[in-house]
Specification:
It is built from 9 helices and 15 strands. With about 290 residues, it is an alpha/beta fold. The strands form 5 sheets. The chain has a 3-stranded mixed sheet, covered by helices on one side. Helix 3 (about 40-55) packs across helix 9. The protein starts with 11 loop residues before the first strand and ends with a strand. It binds citrulline.
């Protein structure tokens, strides 16, 4: 099976996804840090609409089944692994409740015949949501509550033989250690060198790098970023200029449309806003191009 995703917006050919089921239905929202609008049954039906949009893009979905393993956050398949043109990297989750998800990804890559280049060990943590390819040879990682210096150093060592540079950028604490703020919480690539950002929370050197690399930045409005717990910004390009976003954030949608994007939306208060993860987080594209 072909693989490799060192870009963030090229057409998704293959993607790992997990439909929430038994594990989400059993999840205690207080334990998992799910918000007031959490409702597992509604989240599951909202997910179905999202999965229809991904399937309609033509992507092949590789399913990571929820057989009641208790891993409620495992629907956010973006986080336990990433996949280069040379093979996959198995990450190590910073959120302790999510550690067990990595084995599921390992099994899927093995079944798909995708080689594994390396696996994070010991205390090193990096989550996929902190990883942004700004070009095919440059992977930026947000150092924060979920990804630490040791984990970033391990990813750097795993990818160095392939000529891939790994850069680290410090994230703010924002809503605290229990909440989820990834580097991808403040940027969503929309096309080659075009990204939706929430500039006030971008690490300043990362903002400067994007400018140096020639990016055009579309700014998401503060009121919608706050009202959505940041989920207005978390949009998934299934191909350049064609994105899936959470419904209800019209100014953000209009800003993307003004930049030339077609925006498909789905209702996601019980799924994304409550569980702190959006359309990008719900997918691990492992072949784009
Ligand atoms: N890439 C992402 O931003 N993933 C969202 C993960 C949300 C999940 N509830 C978590 O706390 O890890």
């Amino acid at each position: 099976m072909a693989f490799g995703a060192q870009t963030m917006a090229q057409p998704i050919k293959r993607v790992i996804m997990r439909k929430p089921g038994a594990s989400l239905l059993q999840a205690d929202p207080a334990v998992w840090h799910y918000g007031e609008t959490f409702n597992a049954q509604r989240a599951i039906s909202q997910y179905d609409r999202f999965a229809d949009l991904v399937a309609a893009s033509g992507a092949e979905i590789i399913w990571f089944e929820d057989k009641g393993d208790g891993l409620a956050d495992a629907m956010f398949t973006h986080d336990p692994s990433l996949c280069t043109e040379h093979g996959a990297v198995l990450l190590n989750m910073g959120k302790p409740l999510r550690k067990g998800e990595v084995e599921g990804h390992a099994a899927l890559y093995e079944a798909a015949g995708v080689p594994v280049l390396g696996r994070l060990e010991g205390n090193g943590t990096v989550e996929g949501g902190d990883c942004v390819w700004v070009d095919e040879k440059t992977l930026c990682i947000g150092r924060g509550v979920r990804s630490n210096a040791e984990g970033i150093a391990q990813v750097r060592a795993i990818l160095a033989p392939y000529g891939i540079e790994v850069l680290s950028f410090d994230l703010p604490l924002w809503q605290g250690e229990e909440a989820c703020l990834h580097l991808m919480s403040v940027i969503s690539p929309l096309a080659d060198k075009l990204a939706l950002v929430y500039a006030p929370l971008l690490p300043a050197p990362f903002y400067q790098l994007l400018k140096e690399k020639g990016y055009t930045l579309v700014e998401a409005p503060t009121d919608e970023f706050m009202a959505s717990n940041g989920l207005n910004l978390n949009v998934l390009p299934t191909r350049p200029f064609d994105v899936i976003a959470v419904a209800g954030f019209d100014k953000t949608k209009a800003a993307m449309e003004a930049a030339g994007c077609t925006v498909h939306t789905f209702e996601a208060d019980a799924l994304c806003i409550a569980c702190e993860g959006g359309p990008t987080c719900l997918t691990r594209p492992f072949h784009r191009g």
